[in-house]
Specification:
Elements lengths: L11 E3 L1 H14 L4 H17 L7 E6 L3 H15 L3 E6 L8 H8 L6 E4 L10 E5 L11 H12 L3 E5 L21 E5 L2 E2 L13 E5 L4 H7 L4 E3 L23 E5 L6 H13 L4 E6 L4 H5 L6 E4 L5 H9 L2 E4 L7 H12 L3 E4 L2 H9 L6 E3 L3 H8 L3 H6 L1 H12 L2 E4 L5 E3 L4 E3 L12 H14 L4 H19 L13 H7 L2 H4 L1
Parallel strand pairs: 1-8, 2-3, 2-5, 3-4, 5-6, 6-7, 7-9, 10-19, 11-12, 11-14, 12-13, 14-15, 15-16, 16-17
Antiparallel strand pairs: 1-10, 17-18, 18-19
Helix pairs in contact: 1-6, 2-3, 2-4, 3-4, 7-15, 11-12, 12-14, 15-16, 16-17
Organism: Catenovulum sediminis
EC number: 4.2.1.136, 5.1.99.6
Pfam families: Carb_kinase (PF01256), YjeF_N (PF03853)
């Protein structure tokens, strides 16, 4: 059975409910029983184990009480036949099984030993297989189970999770109090939405996909509301420009922000827009900031305005697209500029302080990109940021439904929610958790809508370019990385088609 890994995963993501509801039908369409499907799942896990080199072939399989345990029994049988020393560690209250799991148990040889997980020394094994929950978890992990998960995580051994790391919500990516940190996750039949956002990055390890010969039937039976952004596909949109080109063809972008004493954010956004290919970039900022914004970047046309002046209105009307919010503040100066910007028909990117204005005024537009981090998303939905992180998919979709346009919910597994679906970006790294990164993203978004990309596509391209640039910059180390470090790599990313 061939496993697909991180770089070659399918595009569509599904909820665990979708997979669960169509699993039996999909198996029938392929002429398989659920027990045969379980056999294939166990084989996929053991295939991964066999592909790793271990001096000592000692295997512990951590068992729950559902069909995920059945996958573990299949692995145990195959490993024992291949000469591994296998022990089965049962979670508290999980000493009996039924259905397909019982069938798989009946095929085990007598020499496979059972023990209680509470007394297991996980560090004495080469490999630990997590076959506890799978996609079935819908409540917080019990304290006595959490202690066992901690023991597995502290053992320092290679851990392979069956389908989904136990304790991770397969739909949202939220950890239900505690979860097993896998080195590898082998997920079956279809990719689950929770494997790619929120806490998932710290728990899934490398993700492998095993279709079990039925994936095509599950796709046929379900609509995919979520999808992975395929980084390679973005190159199509960055083809070489015509030789007979001029700056007017690539958009006039206006960036608005930088109240008194806050020049940095709007400067980063504006320079990011230049590096992402905007034809011209103008900046409206507080008069005190003109020198700071323009210094060292003479390509920017910087205007210091005292509120909603005739000059400011003219600049807004002449722009092909507008970015508003970085360093905008929440003063009367900011409120007036935001109100006028909202009345204009140009495509817009609304970021940072402008999102706070939007939360108070609840305007809905179909031609803007909103770029909240979890805290700003909480303001937009009148929820706490922790509540947002518990279900990032729902939050992104609710913001889009309430305010229109496209919502980019930033964070691990950034989400881009439109009226049609939600896409997820796998790229990016923790080094990007520093001030100014969001301003840079806003500028890149603005550059793309100014160049004529529709808001949804502009948002997806911007998130991918931003994340890829961050990953390139992080090759010199994540800690201490700043937004300005990404600038040369933004330029590199939007020239990929030329370079390849």
């Amino acid at each position: 059975m061939k496993l697909s890994s991180n770089r070659h995963l399918p595009r569509n993501l599904y909820t665990p409910e979708q997979v669960k509801n169509s699993e039996k039908w999909a198996a029938q369409q392929q002429g398989l029983s659920l027990f045969e499907l379980m056999q294939k799942a166990g084989e996929a896990i053991f295939e991964l184990i066999e592909n790793c080199f271990f001096k000592e072939k000692t295997l512990c399989i951590l068992l729950g009480k559902g069909n995920n345990a059945g996958d573990g029994f299949v692995v145990a049988r195959l490993a024992h036949a291949a000469g591994w020393h296998v022990e089965l560690a049962t979670m508290p209250g999980c000493q009996s099984w039924s259905g397909e799991a019982q069938q798989a148990l009946a095929q085990l040889p007598d020499r496979v030993h059972f023990k209680n997980a509470e007394s297991c020394d996980f560090s004495s094994f080469s490999v630990i297989v997590d076959a506890v929950f799978g996609i079935g978890l819908n409540k917080i992990v019990k304290p006595e189970w959490s202690v066992i998960f901690d023991a597995v995580n502290q053992a320092g051994r290679l851990v392979i999770s069956a389908d989904v790391p136990s304790g991770l919500n397969a739909h949202t990516g939220d950890v239900m109090v505690n979860a097993i940190k896998a080195t590898h996750t082998v997920t079956f039949i279809a990719l689950k939405s929770g494997l790619f956002t929120a806490d998932a990055g710290d728990y899934c390890g490398e993700i492998h996909f095993a279709p079990l010969d039925v994936a095509q039937h599950v796709e046929k039976a379900n609509q995919a509301y979520f999808r992975l952004l395929q980084l390679s596909e973005q190159k199509f949109y960055f083809k070489p420009r015509a030789r007979n080109s001029h700056k007017g063809q690539f958009g006039r972008l206006l960036c608005i922000g930088g109240d008194r004493g806050m020049s940095g954010a709007i400067r980063i956004a504006a320079e990011g827009a230049l590096r992402a290919g905007a034809g011209t970039v103008s900046v409206i900022t507080h008069p005190d900031n003109v020198v700071q914004v323009s210094q060292g970047r003479p390509e920017l046309m910087v205007y210091g305005v005292n509120g909603v002046t005739t000059e400011a209105k003219t600049l807004m009307q002449q722009a092909d697209a507008i970015v508003i919010g970085p360093g905008l503040g929440r003063s009367g100066w900011a409120n007036g500029l935001m109100q006028i910007a909202c009345e204009l028909e140009q495509n817009k990117v609304v970021d940072a302080d402008a999102l706070h204005w939007l939360a108070e005024h609840a305007v809905k537009k179909n031609n803007w990109i909103l770029t909240p981090h979890p805290g700003e998303a909480g303001v937009l939905l009148q929820q706490s940021s922790s509540h947002i992180q518990h279900d990032r998919y729902a939050a992104a979709q609710q913001i889009q439904a309430r305010y229109g346009g496209v919502c980019i919910l930033k964070g691990h597994g950034s989400l881009i929610a439109s009226s049609l679906d939600t896409s997820v970006c796998q790229a990016g790294n923790p080094g990007m958790a520093s001030g100014g990164m969001g301003d840079l993203l806003a500028g890149i978004c603005g550059a793309f809508i100014a160049q004529g990309f529709a808001p949804t596509l502009a948002a997806e391209l911007a998130v991918v370019v931003h994340a890829q640039a961050g990953d390139e910059a992080a090759k010199q180390g994540e800690r201490g990385m700043i937004a300005s470090d990404l600038m040369p790599f933004v330029r590199q990313c939007v020239n990929q088609a030329i370079e390849s």
